[in-house]
Structure formats: structure tokens, C-alpha cells
Amino acid sequence: MTKRSMFHTEPEPCRARAEQVAEGILRIVASNPGKMTYHGTNSYIIDTPDGRFILDPGPAEDSAHFEAIVENLGGNPAGILVSHHHSDHFGAVPGLRERTGLPVYVSRAFPDDAFQPDGFLEDGQRIAGLTVLHTPGHASDHLCFARLDGVLFTGDHVMSWNSSIVSPPDGNMRDYCDQLQRLIDRDDRICLPGHGPVLQDPRPYIERLLANRMRRETQILKHLLNTSDTVQNIAASVYKKSDPHIAMAAERNVVAHLQKLLSESRVAQEEGIWRVN
């Protein structure tokens, strides 16, 4: 199996329309397609014992998406959940709270001092029938949410269409890999990611995601065994990406891998040149 073939695709979704993706769960896909977002951000409306919650309202600039969320919150809306602070997930939150009066719940590690949430969530906490999992790596404040029936909302930690960028300083590769292993050990039956289609039987897929990260780490070490080098040269050698935008993302992943290896005393660097210890 090639690296690309492990990922999942889907037709471009209808915009500003809610579609059921699991029992008691609606998905609305924002119109913010791109090289890092696939067809757009998935916003989920979740029926819970406490009422309907919206997870990740999406980008602030998509007014049609915003109105579709308001329309589908129904007669018993209860709250707003945030997987992490990146604007394609969080951007519409302030406006949605102002419009609906709903409380906003974010990670205890949420870094935006300009926004005051209504509640902070801790790892292991329960809210509206969901278990909070603090899964740093892609972002320091990243949360996944687990339902008791094996449905796991994975945000950007596990995406079905591609692997996630891990960009320091807020991104941390060691944390990211540790949390991938945590999700493997959970063995949920279905993942609903922040971008891309539903992921059925996710454990083998997440195992491959982790294996790919370890393969990249091995390639980086192999490169450094041959020659001490810069991040840019390592990324060009290991990832071989010609698109400038994707090449920059590859460089950020290399930085994250190198910092992980540095924390494990396996590499060292001086004046931007990295070498094997």
C-alpha cells in the first residue's frame, strides 16, 4: 500500500446543509477548501442528554455556514465545543455565542487571552455525555471528544484525508505521537475528523499514521548520519515536495521531528545545523 492510498476521499459536499453522519450527529462542511483543509472544516451538531451541542463552528467569514448551524441547532441548543483554537475551527465561535447566547467550552490549555470562554475542559472530564481527551500535538490545546458508543470526534489530530501538520512551538511531535498511540489503544469504532469523511474502523488507519511518522523520523536520522544539515535541506531530501506551500508544511514537520529527537538526546544542533549525537 502506498502512502497516498491510505487516505480517504469523498465528493465535494453540499454547502450550508446538514447531513447525518452517525446516530444523533449532523455534519455541515464549511466553504473553506484548501491544501490544508480539504473540502473544508467539518462542524458537527451533536444530540446529547443536555441538548444540542455544536463542535467547531468553523471560519468566521462563511456566513452561509454560520446560518446553517443556527438553523440546525433546533429548539434545545445547549453549548459550543471547540477542538482547538485554529481559526478554521474557532473563528465563528465569538459570533455564534453573541447570536445564540450559548456557553463556549474550550481546553484548559486554550491560548487566546483575548477570548473569555464560559468553561474550561480537562482531560477525562465528562460534558454532555462526552469524555474529553486532551490530545496535544497538532495544537497544544487540542481536544478530542469520545461518546460511549465508540464514536470519537478527532478534530485535526486524526484526519481521514491526510496527515496533520505539527508546527512548533505550539505543535509538538512527541506529544502528537504519544496521543496517536493513546487513540490506538482506545480502539474506537468510528472517527469523525475535523476535515474529510467519516473514518470507519479507525485503529488500522491510526496505526499507519503513527508508522508513517516513525518512518519519517528514520529518514531524517539517516540523512543526518550522512551529513549534518539544515532543516530546509533535510525537508527537501526527505519529503521532496515541489509545491511551495506544501514544502513549507514539510519543513515545519521536520522541525517538530528534530525537536522530538532533541528531547530524546538523539540529535543536537548549533547555529541552525543539525547532527546526530
UniProtKB/TrEMBL annotation:
The chain positions of domain Metallo-beta-lactamase read 40-195
PANTHER family linked: ENDORIBONUCLEASE LACTB2
Gene3D superfamilies listed in its UniProt record: Ribonuclease Z/Hydroxyacylglutathione hydrolase-like (3.60.15.10), Winged helix-like DNA-binding domain superfamily/Winged helix DNA-binding domain (1.10.10.10)
Name its species: Marinovum algicola
Its recorded name reads Glyoxylase, beta-lactamase superfamily II
